[in-house]
Design brief:
With about 400 residues, the protein is an alpha/beta fold. It contains 15 helices and 15 strands.
């Protein structure tokens, strides 16, 4: 039976403020509450978004009128937050990652199986234009059989919010504990999963504040982690997660995608599609199709490439490759904000529609595990100086 959603947004930080208006405006949501460990932050949200507060997460779980939790807590807390919500009979939308332990990911999958509740991981990068383009063309057969690809999340820690950096016990989280911005965009495009991984870590040459034994709670010394991942379809992906790298935008992308019949390459607003021909290759510049419309409108300007490199036009504006998905959004979203390559509206509509109807969401628990667990195993590989390790798989829903 279809039932409207009463959502409690848990964690009133910088990121969640992008999503409260989207939950409030969705036609399948009847009410939105917020809660936070710091009462003053929940009160700020109350005034900002005209919502009611709940004093604690425990109270939210006990409330019979709350049937959905939207988790925006610190990344390393997600496993326990989600597990408790599902055990309390709540649907769950969770920011990435799924969890920080393989066992937690597996438990979430089992709880979703057992309860029939909706769980969705809000992975922005499946809707990033580079990933959507590669998924579209791969499905059409433009690449032939997949051979090799490269995806990455390059986000220098100096570009993180001040409150994130101030918490030294958490800021130095192993990069591959937050893997899904790089793994998901490649795996979603290919509709496959990782079977084996080899990984190496980079230790800063200078003394830093975050990636040190005895400072962060994981005793993690790697600011950057790099991996090669064997895929179930026979191909190989190079996947990187970097936090100390002098690079800003786009922080996450599929940089290259190679098959037996064609390939794709991307760098700083230039998207190129190649096809094998009897005499060499055909080349099509597909930048206007893949880039956000607001970006394309400025492409003739002298400082265009510099502005792209500094993250301009990479928030709210849709790109033509997203148009098909964009059409299914509710009319109530028309004048609302967006973000992360125009992915926010699509994600919240995915979750609300799935929880309301009982259908599987786009990034359901099984896919969330497939996008998260390879990173957790990759970190173990890096700790073992590049040992080749098998990646456990939770399968897919029956």
């Amino acid at each position: 039976m279809k039932k409207s959603l009463t959502v409690c947004v848990v964690g009133c930080g910088d990121f969640a403020r992008n999503f409260v208006p989207l939950f409030k405006a969705h036609p399948y949501v009847s009410k939105v509450y917020v809660c936070d460990l710091l009462p003053e932050r929940a009160q700020e949200y109350k005034k900002m978004f005209d919502v009611e507060t709940i004093d604690s997460y425990e109270q939210a779980l006990e409330r019979s009128d709350v049937n959905a939790i939207a988790n925006f807590t610190q990344r390393h807390l997600h496993g326990d937050i989600v597990r408790r919500a599902l055990l309390s009979g709540k649907h769950v939308y969770s920011a990435v990652p799924m969890a920080s332990k393989v066992e937690e990911c597996q438990e979430i999958v089992e709880l979703v199986k057992k309860t029939g509740l909706t769980y969705m991981m809000g992975e922005t990068c499946i809707y990033f234009p580079s990933s959507m383009f590669c998924r579209e063309k791969y499905a059409e057969g433009a690449f032939g059989r997949f051979v090799y690809g490269e995806s990455q999340y390059y986000h220098d820690i100096e570009h993180f919010p001040a409150n994130f950096k101030a918490d030294l016990t958490s800021a130095g989280v192993p990069p591959f504990f937050y893997p899904t911005h790089s793994t998901a965009m490649m795996l979603h495009a290919l509709d496959t999963y990782v079977t084996r991984v080899v990984s190496f870590g980079y230790q800063d040459q200078e003394d830093d504040l975050y990636y040190k034994v005895g400072v962060n709670q994981w005793d993690n010394v790697f600011s950057n982690e790099y991996s090669l991942m064997q895929l179930a379809n026979g191909g190989v992906a190079r996947v990187n997660e970097c936090r100390r790298i002098g690079y800003k935008a786009p922080s996450s992308s599929i940089q290259s995608f190679y098959g037996t019949q064609g390939s794709y390459q991307f760098n700083n607003a230039q998207h190129l599609l190649y096809s094998k021909t009897p005499n060499g290759v055909g080349l099509e510049n597909v930048s206007d199709y893949v880039n956000p419309e607001a970006m394309t409108a400025h492409k003739a300007e002298k400082d265009f490439m510099l502005r792209v490199a500094n993250h301009e036009w990479q928030g709210n504006s849709y790109s033509p490759v997203q148009e098909k998905e964009r059409k299914r959004l509710p009319e109530s979203y028309k004048n609302l904000g967006n973000g992360h390559m125009a992915s926010h509206q699509l994600l919240i509509d995915d979750f609300c529609s799935a929880a309301y109807s009982g259908a599987l969401p786009t990034v359901h628990a099984w896919l969330a595990a497939r996008y998260t667990i390879p990173g957790l195993i990759a970190h173990q590989s890096a700790l073992q100086h590049g040992a080749a390790l098998d990646v456990p798989d939770c399968g897919m829903p029956e």
